[in-house]
Structures are given as structure tokens and as C-alpha cells.
């Protein structure tokens, strides 16, 4: 088991709810041993979540690897907070001594041994839109966070300029929201996905440009108590993705 703690380097914000376990009976997908990561209700927060971006987890359980390596995505986000963060792992236990366990920063390429180090400091920076040298492609990212409460954010890319804009439809195919419309430039775009007015349930985000169409599923969950304050929609653009690795070095795990 690896327990994670994300904190501001120069502020009071923390997120203690990140746990990676290897359990008998666990599966690679979402299962009974996993716990969904929900967005904090505070106006300013930092967040660390494990797993696929379309289904972020507070607890991610995987079957124990017997050969090869297991890589688990770790997503880090912040809203209304400073950019300097510190990720620590106060608990690393029940891992066989023959396993190697490491954290890799996918933005910088830095790799940290979880057994010999105790923390990793980094800066979350936004990727520039239309960065030179990057080929423009047509793509629709998964909404984040997902499940969503109050507001999520959506990023998409256009291969060429044109009339485009993502919309949201329910499972009956009825359009319930238009997130952006009109002529848009080629390159990377981000927009807010306001879900506070939608009933809890499953929806589909759809992006259509000419003959190209992409869809993503988003799950809307009920808000707790009073209405959650509006939040900036820029955090996925300021999202830093890390990767946890577990790999048996010699022989199978237990």
C-alpha cells in the first residue's frame, strides 16, 4: 500500500485522500475495492487522484503484478492556490522487498524511488495552447473531475479552424447544454462544464466539427448541502500528471 499526501509548499491546503493498494480480487478497472475521488466543496483546493482521467479514484486497488511493471496514473490539480506543491508518501508498506516502487513526473521525466525518498516538490504549470512544434489534432479530453459536482472543465483540440463547440446530451439524445459555439481557431481549447443545473446521472459530451465527432461520458453527482461556489475552469489546463510504478524485480509478488 502507498498512501499519498499532497500539500501546498507555502500554504495551508492539503489533500490526504490518495491510496494505492494491491489486493487479492482487485481488478484493473473500477471495482468494489476502489473509491471515487470527489471534488472538494471549498472554493480553493488542491487534489490528487489516481487512475484513468475518466474515473478518478481516491483509492485505487490493483491486482498484484507477477511479471513486468504496473503503471498507475496520478493526476494533480489545483484551484485558487499557489503553483508550488509537495507530494509525500507517509505510508509505503506491504510491498514485497523484491518490488521496485517509483514516482515518475511525466512533465519533467524525473523519477523518485518511493523507498529511499519521502517527498517530491514540483510546480504545476499550464501547457501553452497551440505550442509550436506540436501537430494540431482533433481530440476531446475526458471532463475533469469525473464524476463532477458543481463544475468540471473540458479540454479539446481542433486540427483546423472552423465552426465547432462541445455540447452535452442526456441518454435520450436531448441536448441539455452548449458549452461553446461559433468559429474557433485550430489548436487547444478549454471551457467550463457547468453541471450544477443538471440532474444527477450520466451524460455525454459531444464535439462535432464537419465530419468529425468525438464523445466523452460524464457522471453528474448530487451536490452536498448548499450550492457549491463557482470555481475557475482552468485547472485541467494547469494539471500535472504523475505516474506511480510498481514492478517485481525478481520473481512474482505474493
Write the layout of secondary structure elements.
Blueprint: E1 2-8, E2 14-22, E3 35-36, E4 45-50, E5 57-62, E6 70-79, E7 84-92, E8 99-105, E9 111-113, E10 119-123, E11 139-140, E12 151-158, E13 162-163, E14 166-169, E15 175-178, E16 183-184, E17 187-194, E18 201-209, E19 212-220, E20 240-248
Task: Give an overview of the whole structure.
The protein is built from no helices and 20 strands. It is mainly beta. Strand 18 (201-209) and strand 19 (212-220) form a beta hairpin. It starts with a strand and ends in a 6-residue tail after the last strand. The model is unreliable at 126-136 and 226-241 (pLDDT under 50).
Low-pLDDT segments, ≥5 res? 126-136, 226-241
Radius of gyration: 19 Å
Instruction: Tell me the strand order in the biggest sheet.
Output: 3-5-2-1-7-10
Helix coverage percent = under 10%
Written as H for each helix and E for each strand, in order along the chain, the element string is: EEEEEEEEEEEEEEEEEEEE
List keywords for this structure.
254 residues; 20 strands; 5-stranded antiparallel beta sheet; mainly beta; 6-stranded mixed beta sheet; 48% strand
